[in-house]
Design brief:
With 295 residues, this protein is α/β, with parallel strands linked by helices. Helices cover 42% and strands 13% of the residues. Helix 4 packs parallel to helix 6 and helix 6 crosses helix 7. The radius of gyration is 19 Å and the shape is globular. It has 12 helices and 8 strands. The chain has an 8-stranded parallel β-sheet. The mean pLDDT is 96. The chain binds phosphoenolpyruvate (PEP) and magnesium ion. The site of phosphoenolpyruvate has 10 residues, from strand 2 and helix 9. The site of magnesium ion (MG) has 5 residues, from helix 9.
């Protein structure tokens, strides 16, 4: 965008994102390292739609430190001043290596033990994260979401683990509460079964969903990058299924992949019925401005 337009967008960052016809669009931000997000930006946003904890933890070496994890969530809730914080449980594997957690060597790690699959296979690590989350949930509007979900079994197993941690915390006399638990829609299996999956909300991870629907590696500089089109009809059909299932079942649907920050994609996303997005924090002003320019 031209400098003038960028300055106008920046000056209006706090104005709500409403289209010309009056549709209010929620724009939250994606966060990796909380220390690098200014308070002003947190205040301007509609909340944090995605905290990528594998990156938060890696920079601070927090994997085995429940107290430090709890303090990260609590501090973000305080800084957000009662706007919601959506924490994604550890999403390790595939394109997200992580030092210090034992992972198998696989021939195809992108179709292997990653995201929620890996956490369910490493329950000690997962339980520690859940204990910190359940404690922080008493401090403000915290929501938790699970990455790379494929089946209901994974959601059920996570709920059982969370319930067990909650009982354990109560037994220790700690205050804790169960937050809403949503899932990311990143695999074709999840997208195709949103009519039955039981979760408190759906958050579409269009980066991974595009990769898996198009069977094309998520590598913008790679040899099959031209196939990696988040607006290919195959992907938009999947998006439509999720939006419709959510609307029918009263389950909130949002989208937190990179396509949400692309002004050229915005008309398509709005037409599909999406009205809740989470974008890189540096894109907040521009996305709000792009929404205001829509009919
Ligand atoms: C996604 O896959 O679209 C997403 C938001 O998660 P990540 O980019 O961290 O994989
Ligand atoms: Mg993803």
């Amino acid at each position: 965008i031209a400098t003038g337009a960028r300055e106008r967008a920046a000056a209006m960052i706090d104005e709500p994102a409403v289209t010309r016809s009056g549709r209010r669009i929620e724009v939250k931000i994606n966060v990796e390292d909380p220390a690098r997000v200014p308070d002003a930006l947190l205040r301007s946003s509609d909340g944090i739609g995605l905290l990528r904890t594998e990156l938060t933890f890696e920079s601070g070496d927090l994997l085995h430190d429940e107290e430090a994890q709890y303090r990260v969530y609590r501090s973000l809730l305080q800084r957000l001043e009662s706007k919601p914080l959506t924490v994604r449980t550890l999403d390790i594997g595939g394109d997200k290596p992580f030092q210090g957690l034992d992972q198998p060597v696989e021939r195809n790690p992108f179709l292997g033990l990653r995201g929620i699959r890996l956490m369910l296979a490493r329950p000690a690590v997962f339980r520690l994260q859940w204990r910190a989350l359940l404690r922080a949930a008493t401090e403000g509007p915290l929501r938790v979401m699970l990455p790379m979900v494929t089946t209901q079994t994974e959601i059920d197993a996570t709920r059982r683990l969370a319930d067990a941690c909650l009982k354990e915390l109560f037994g220790e006399g700690q205050s804790a509460t169960l937050p809403p638990i949503g899932i990311m829609i990143e695999t074709p299996a999840a997208a195709l079964t949103t009519d039955t999956l039981e979760a408190d909300f759906f958050s579409i991870g269009s980066n991974d969903l595009t990769q898996y629907v198009m069977a094309a590696a998520r590598d913008a500089a790679g040899p099959v990058a031209d196939l990696l089109d988040p607006l290919h009809p195959a992907v938009t059909r999947a998006l439509r299924m999720v939006v419709e299932a959510g609307a029918r079942r009263g389950i909130e649907v949002s989208l937190c992949g990179e396509v949400a920050a692309d002004p050229q994609a915005l008309p398509t996303l709005l037409d599909l019925g999406l009205d809740k997005f989470s974008v890189a924090s540096a894109r907040l002003a521009a996305v709000r401005q792009a929404v205001r320019e829509q009919p």
